From TrEMBL, chain A:
It comes from Allosphingosinicella deserti. Keywords: Membrane, Transmembrane, Transmembrane helix. The keyword Plastid does not apply. GO terms for cellular component: plasma membrane. This is ABC transporter permease. GO terms for molecular function: ABC-type transporter activity. The chain crosses the membrane at residues 20-39, 129-149, 176-196, 208-235, 242-262, 438-457. Pfam families: ABC2_membrane_2.
From TrEMBL, chain B:
Keywords: Membrane, Transmembrane, Transmembrane helix. Pfam families: DUF3526. The chain crosses the membrane at residues 21-39, 156-178, 199-224, 236-259, 271-293, 469-489. The keyword Membrane applies. The keyword Membrane applies. It comes from Allosphingosinicella deserti. This is ABC transporter permease.
Length: 465, 498
């Protein structure tokens, strides 16, 4: 029974050219944006793989030199695009893609794809997730309005309700029709195409499958709650004009205004310190080039640590001092930069919690988390690269410290040492490992889905012909 | 029977519209969004200004510390205080050039900056200038939460470009279609009034309330955000004029749709489609097209080139140094010293060579950026929403062109500093090598740190910035006129039969 009702409603939807073509147009935009982003990512990842291989060759083939010089030469690490970045690039266009892992510095990740974007590129950058979360409500509300408010205006709704044994069946079939049309055209094709392209690119695994499924579920859930809200408002409003004005208002509020307002509120409530100040703090507390006065303090500390009385008894004073300062810098970076990144995560957590104000916020935060393109995932790369850097520099310094070098003595090493450093490799964490910041968003999405479903059931119970 | 005069119709409509709570609700929401947008951007810029001030203080402290150390290192060598290594010694001109010349190029905000965030959340407002960083500065940035960047900032330009037209279109759709949706259009049509005068009077009445309210809301929002209205009067007046013309443009679009006298549903559906096409569809298509036709050079490729060229330079180091020293008549007699130069002195020759080899790639990036800006400028004429954003950013001084100027001047500043410091560093090649048994802690071939010039951004005058926006303003005015004319021409007869 419900199946044939849904089919009927879908036929009615297709007859309303304005609503149906709007849905088709958005679906086409979703696919085009996916193609553009996925294509860019594929090119960029191929470049990154090629240059990363060249970096490895350069590292191993850098020739004989002082190990600390090798630690300065080091390598550049490149961040591969998250597998689902074609669906939701999240923070990716605005975070660096490469980092130089040199001694003394935890460098910033550089080369943000949108760093030098023109206004056209910045305004024109829209991902499938952004289109679905931002413009999905407009289209879904238009579909809901078409199926309900206009029926009411024409009087056909009264006839249908009078003839129906269960008015809820009619309302339910309308909501299902709107949802299935929206999800079937906006979410399903792009999710399938994404899986196909990942399969072709050899990136399809269990985690990717699970992430895609979760992303599709989150987006479908979002569209379902919008469909329920759209139908409920259309049923409750006094007339079609009010329904339309109300739905427009909700779209503007949910999708256009509140996400940006929420972002501004988060900035105001949990402000980030200036990153310049952070860099200055790091440079002050862990300078790459320290003063002669610091030298004296370092030597005293080294004598104490080594349990010797004379500097000459430390086999390689220079390397020991470099190692001392390097390890000191690790603690500083963890405290200063780690604290800063913690604040960024805390901002994201608050933003996700504001998903209880707008389902669009909840959908945005959930989508980027599931896609592995939020800041938590970016930080995972930063931390992985930093661990690699520290291991590399420590290994170089340790080699230096193990060899005597006083006066004119100099210790060098070669490919035998360089090749003992493993190649830098990055694998993204599995789904769920870094979802804690987005947990409030998932909860908010479920909350909205529950509220919308409850609203729809309650309104449909009260319906009278 | 003679119909009512337009003036009378307008006066009647003006009173009716003015009594509607819908009008005031929409205008209140628009005003609130203006205030939030201006305050939000002002808060960002105020935080950035504070960061620049802190950077200034840190620089001052750093240079004061270097000067104090330079004085301290004049002391003779003792058992507890030996000679200071060259990289720690501000009295050693080579060490000074590499480790103590650290200046800041700062881009302050203009008084009108709360008009639009532009690129101010993405591009750095402080560049650290060191002598030997290739091309002026590293590709750094001020970290903003990337989630916020991806979402876009709720600034005044966003409220004007995106929210204002929605509010206006909602008013037009709900006010003008009232009679149609209540089946009263036949009644109106039966009167001695044409559809042009009737629709025109109502639209004009909505505008007569909305335009002054919007302009006042904008000025109030900027005032609340702390913009000195007197100082930035020119830019603000043009921004207000742009907003008014933008409202007229959307009025023309609305009139064109409403000429068919549709119901509210159909009108809002069409408005939404046009709005979405102008705000997202066309920019998305334009951006994708431009990206396909003129893709950006690979940043990863640039890293590769940097590393490759760095290795080449390192391999050819002695040859390059010998050639550089031999080329200089004043240094030629000391060519044998070319291979034993200290690191900082070597850099003064090697970095320009690195830049020379990287220049084609660097130019490719710059050229691409310029082309993209040019395309965006032209696209602004085709996509008014983009044009307004760009115009607001220009008036606010947060446009990409000002950023590019800042970066170019920062590079010139670095070259100027090199012109002052490098000759002093290189002159040391002609001096006898320092004795290993130094009597003072510092080398003292630089008596005290140099008083280097500070960076000052040479900004375009406000009039020039305003002048840059005027062609678009004129064009938008023409578009608005065209849309209104088309709308009026199409509103010829009553369409009471659906």
């Amino acid at each position: 029974m419900i199946g044939s009702l849904v089919r009927l409603e879908l036929t009615m939807l297709r007859r309303d050219r304005r609503a149906w073509w709007s849905l088709i147009a958005l679906a086409v935009l979703v696919l085009l944006s996916f193609a553009a982003i996925a294509g860019d990512n594929a090119r960029s990842d191929a470049d990154k793989r090629a240059v990363a291989a060249a970096e490895r060759e350069r590292w191993v083939g850098q020739g004989e030199k002082d190990p600390h010089s090798a630690a300065h030469y080091s390598i550049f690490a490149f961040k591969p695009s998250p597998a689902l970045a074609g669906l939701d690039p999240g923070s990716e266009p605005f975070v660096g893609q490469s980092v130089w892992l040199e001694a003394h510095h935890q460098n910033d990740m550089l080369y943000r794809p949108q760093q030098n974007a023109s206004l056209l590129q910045r305004i024109g950058f829209a991902s499938p997730a952004a289109l679905i979360t931002g413009f999905g409500p407009l289209i879904v509300f238009l579909l809901a309005f078409t199926l309900v408010a206009q029926d009411r205006e024409r009087g056909t709704m009264r006839l249908a309700l009078g003839a129906a044994v269960h008015p809820r069946l009619i309302v339910g079939s309308k909501a299902l029709a709107v949802w299935s049309a929206a999800a079937g055209l906006l979410v399903l094709p792009v999710a399938v195409i994404s899986l196909l392209s990942l399969g072709i690119g050899g990136r399809l695994g269990g985690d990717v499958l699970l992430r895609t499924l979760c992303w599709a579920l989150a987006m479908a859930g979002y569209l379902a709650l919008l469909a329920a809200v759209g139908i409920a408002v259309s049923l409750r409003a006094g007339n079609a004009r009010l329904a339309l004005a109300g739905l427009f208002g909700l779209w503007i509020l949910f999708a256009l205004a509140l996400p940006r307002v929420a972002s501004g509120v988060v900035d105001a409530v949990r402000p980030l310190p200036s990153s310049q100040a952070i860099r200055q703090q790091m440079a002050e507390q862990a300078p790459a080039f320290w003063s002669d006065e610091q030298n004296a303090r370092n030597r005293a500390a080294l004598l104490k640590r080594s349990g010797v009385r004379r500097i000459e008894d430390i086999p390689n004073l220079r390397m020991a001092e470099l190692d001392l300062m390097e390890r000191h810098s690790h603690a500083v970076f963890d405290r200063v930069l780690g604290g800063f990144y913690g604040k960024v995560a805390s901002q994201d957590e608050l933003f996700a919690a504001l998903g209880f104000l707008s389902p669009t916020i909840a959908a945005q935060a959930s989508s980027s988390s599931v896609s592995g393109s939020d800041f938590s995932h970016h930080r995972h790369f930063i931390d992985t690269a930093e661990r690699y850097r520290r291991n590399l520099v420590n290994a170089m310094n340790a080699d230096g410290m193990a060899h005597r070098a006083h006066g004119t003595e100099r210790h060098t090493n070669d490919a035998r040492l360089w090749s003992r450093i493993p190649e830098f490799a990055y694998s993204a964490p599995p789904l769920g490992a870094l979802s804690s910041t987005a947990l409030p968003a998932f909860a908010a999405l479920l909350f909205w889905l529950g509220i919308a479903g409850f609203l729809l059931v309650r309104i449909s119970r009260r319906l009278r012909p | 029977m003679s119909g009512p005069r337009f003036r009378d119709l307008f006066a009647w409509e003006w009173r009716q519209v003015g009594r509607s709570p819908l009008l005031w609700t929409v205008l209140l929401i628009v005003s609130a969004s203006f205030a939030w947008g201006a305050l939000n951007t002002a808060a960002l810029h105020s935080a950035q200004a504070a960061a620049l001030e802190r950077a200034r203080q840190v620089d001052t402290a750093f240079h004061a510390n270097a000067a104090a150390r330079a004085r301290a290192y004049r002391a003779p060598v003792t058992s507890s205080g030996g000679p200071v290594a060259y990289w720690q010694d501000p009295t050693d001109v080579a060490g000074y050039s590499e480790y103590f010349v650290r200046m800041s190029a700062l881009k302050p905000h203009l008084p009108s900056s709360p008009l639009a965030a532009g690129v101010s959340d993405l591009a750095p407002s402080r560049l650290e200038i060191r002598l030997n960083t290739p091309f002026g500065f590293t590709d750094t940035y001020d970290f903003e939460n990337p989630r916020g960047l991806a979402l876009g900032r709720f600034d005044l330009a966003f409220a004007v470009v995106f929210l204002l037209p929605i509010g206006l279109l909602l008013l037009f759709a709900l006010f003008v279609t009232f009679e149609r949706d209540r089946d009263m259009l036949r009644l109106v049509a039966a009167q001695a009034v044409g559809p042009r005068a009737w629709t025109g009077a109502r639209l004009a009445a909505i505008l007569a309330w909305s335009v002054p309210a919007t302009v006042l809301a904008m000025i109030a929002a900027l005032g609340i955000a702390g913009v000195p209205l007197g100082t930035a009067a020119g830019s603000l007046a043009v921004a207000a004029l742009l907003t008014v013309v933008y409202m007229l443009f959307w009025s023309g679009v609305a009139l064109t749709i409403l000429a068919r006298q549709p119901g509210a549903g159909a009108a809002l559906g069409s408005f939404a489609a046009i709005w979405a096409a102008l705000t997202i569809g066309l920019p998305l298509a334009g951006s994708a097209l431009v990206g396909m036709i003129d893709p950006a050079p690979s940043a990863v490729g640039y890293v590769d080139a940097q590393r490759r060229i760095g290795d080449e330079i390192n391999a050819e180091r002695d040859k390059i140094l010998a050639a550089a020293v031999t080329r200089r008549p004043d240094l030629r007699p000391y060519a044998d010293r070319a291979t034993s130069l200290d690191y900082a002195t070597r850099l003064s020759f090697l970095v320009p060579e690195t830049e020379r080899r990287l220049a084609p790639l660097r130019s490719a990036f710059e050229d691409h950026r310029l082309r993209q800006e040019g395309v965006a400028r032209i696209a602004g004429f085709a996509i008014p929403t983009l044009g307004i954003e760009a115009a607001f950013a220009t008036l606010a001084g947060t446009d990409p062109a000002r950023q590019r100027t800042f970066e170019a001047q920062a590079r010139q500043y670095q070259l100027r500093l090199r012109g002052i410091v490098h000759p002093l560093v290189q002159r040391e090649i002609t001096q006898p090598p320092s004795s290993p048994a130094r009597t003072t802690r510092g080398r003292l071939n630089l008596a005290e740190p140099l008083t280097l010039p500070k960076f000052a951004l040479a900004d375009r005058p406000a009039a020039e910035r305003i002048g840059g926006v005027l062609p678009f303003l004129l064009w938008l005015g023409l578009l608005a006129l065209l849309a209104i004319t088309i709308g009026l021409v199409r509103t010829r007869e009553w369409k009471v039969v659906e």
